[in-house]
Design goal:
Number of domains: 1
Largest sheet: 12 strands, mixed
Radius of gyration: 21 Å
Number of helices: 13
CATH topology: Rossmann fold
CATH architecture: 3-Layer(aba) Sandwich
Helix content: 25-40%
Order of helices and strands: HEEEHHEEEHEHEHEHHHHHHEEEEHEEE
Number of strands: 16
Distance between the termini: 41 Å
Strand content: 15-25%
């Protein structure tokens, strides 16, 4: 009976893995750095190279359940762990906006091989490179191999107005807008033309990354992607978020207030654009006190969360329908690992919860029983009540598989100079120009007034 119970419990805590009926075959090296190539199915590669996805995740006993896991991600003190420092580059976009790219890597990164993989990060709703969930991946990924790390480079793409990035155009970011990550990847690929680029997105950034991969298909500048706690179906998950008093008060209003706080930081900058929809919406937003997420999106995001078209949208719901990524999964054409927790209070509806879901042959979808929203905290055996993020290990296994074992088959898209900007051949609406500013960024410094971890 005891043995049976142990087996049952182990199975209950083991992530559920979903593949397409016919997983894609990927070219891989028989041994590291070898020119001998063979094809292997994505499902076989995950089984062999990502063993943590096949093992149980047991949350720390004092952080069981999705709410506690999520709370700890938001209020825990992570300033003493996973320290990462960055050098920031500012890019001006064609529409006058500014992106903040935070670069990091092992000591003496300039001596790394030109084929060293680069991890490209998209953060959550109002986050940035300082977030603990970002650093939990990048600290070991950018640690040297002799110290147990991967020895990779990394770049965090901070959205417009986030993490100290100046707002220089009357436009926000959104969960569905992909032009900024497309622009950032143009710049990153020009710096590292021979390096595999590996994307990872968290929460809202996960949705953006999924949409980018689906829109680009075989033209993706990313070799592979990994998305954690993506909101997928915005309509279904926003409705679930507003369905109970607890979720509305604790989660929806917290997310809404974070966005109000972020908007308030840019009042002076928006004064330069008196006729813009964003500036017109600002007085109503500034008067809000802990609004629901839907209330903020109705007042501002639907109007100025991206370029026109498709913005502005008639309503927040119209924006949610457009921004969702669950229905784009069949269009993915590079390897993508998606991980969600079944008890995530912010994302209770997943694409694989229904028999109608369809996955691309390039997608691996993993669902853990517990973990909350960007939590996945397990006991750290090196201390009595310490915790560590379980998610770090499977993500690093996936990154190593895609960065070192899988063969780079991307087609390089030529760039050109036009009107002072670097642009892609065949496109004139996006491009970048490096501008002054940036500098050294200490990753453990939080943004005052914003609740982290979401």
């Amino acid at each position: 009976m005891g043995a049976f119970l142990s087996l049952f419990m182990a199975a209950a805590f083991r992530p559920r893995l979903y593949f397409a009926a016919d997983p894609a075959f990927i070219g891989v090296r028989k041994v590291p750095n070898s020119k001998q190539i063979e094809n292997a199915s994505l499902s076989d590669l995950v089984t062999a190279q990502c063993p943590t996805l096949l093992k149980q995740f047991r949350p720390a006993w004092w952080l069981t359940g999705g709410h506690l896991q999520t709370f700890w991600s938001a209020i825990g003190d992570f300033t003493k762990v996973d320290k990462v420092e960055y050098e920031r580059t500012l890019l001006r976009t064609v529409d006058g906006g500014t992106l903040g790219l935070d670069f990091t890597g092992p000591p003496n990164s300039e001596l790394l091989a030109e084929t060293t993989p680069v991890i490209v990060v998209l953060h959550g709703l109002t986050g940035g490179s300082h977030e603990s969930y970002v650093r939990a991946i990048l600290a070991p990924a950018c640690t040297t191999v002799d110290r147990g790390g991967l020895g990779y480079r990394a770049v965090v793409v901070n959205f417009r107005g986030c993490a100290g990035v100046p707002l220089t155009s009357p436009r926000l970011y959104s969960g569905g807008t992909t032009d900024d990550i497309r622009t950032a990847l143009m710049y990153i690929s020009s710096l590292y033309p021979n390096a595999p680029l590996l994307g990872i997105g968290f929460s809202l950034g996960a949705n953006v990354l999924t949409r980018y991969l689906a829109e680009e298909g075989e033209r993706s500048r990313l070799n592979a992607g990994c998305v954690l706690a993506s909101p997928w179906d915005f309509v279904a998950n926003i409705e679930a978020l507003d369905s109970t008093l607890f979720r509305r008060v604790v989660y929806s209003r917290t997310l809404g207030q974070n966005l109000v706080t972020l908007a308030n930081r840019h009042v002076d900058a928006l004064a330069k654009f008196p006729d813009s929809p964003m500036t017109a919406a600002l007085p109503a937003v500034r008067s809000m006190n802990r609004p629901l997420l839907t209330e903020f999106d109705q007042a501002m995001t639907r109007l100025c969360g991206g370029p026109s078209p498709p913005f502005p949208f008639p309503s927040a719901r119209d924006y949610y329908v457009w921004a969702s990524s669950h229905n784009l999964l069949p269009k993915i054409r590079v390897p993508l690992l998606a991980i969600n927790a079944a008890d995530d209070p912010l994302v209770p509806r997943l694409p694989v919860d229904t028999d109608r879901y369809t996955l691309s042959p390039w997608v691996v979808f993993s669902v853990t029983a517990e973990g909350g929203h960007l939590g996945w905290f397990e006991k750290d055996n090196s201390s009595r009540f310490g915790v560590k993020r379980w998610i770090t290990k499977p993500v690093l296994e996936w990154m190593q598989l895609m960065g070192e074992v899988a063969v780079d088959t991307r087609r390089m898209i030529p760039l050109r100079q036009a009107d002072g900007f670097t642009k892609e051949e065949g496109r004139d609406d996006i491009g970048y120009l490096q501008v002054e500013g940036g500098g050294h960024v200490v990753g453990v410094e939080d943004q005052d007034g914003l609740l982290a971890g979401l």
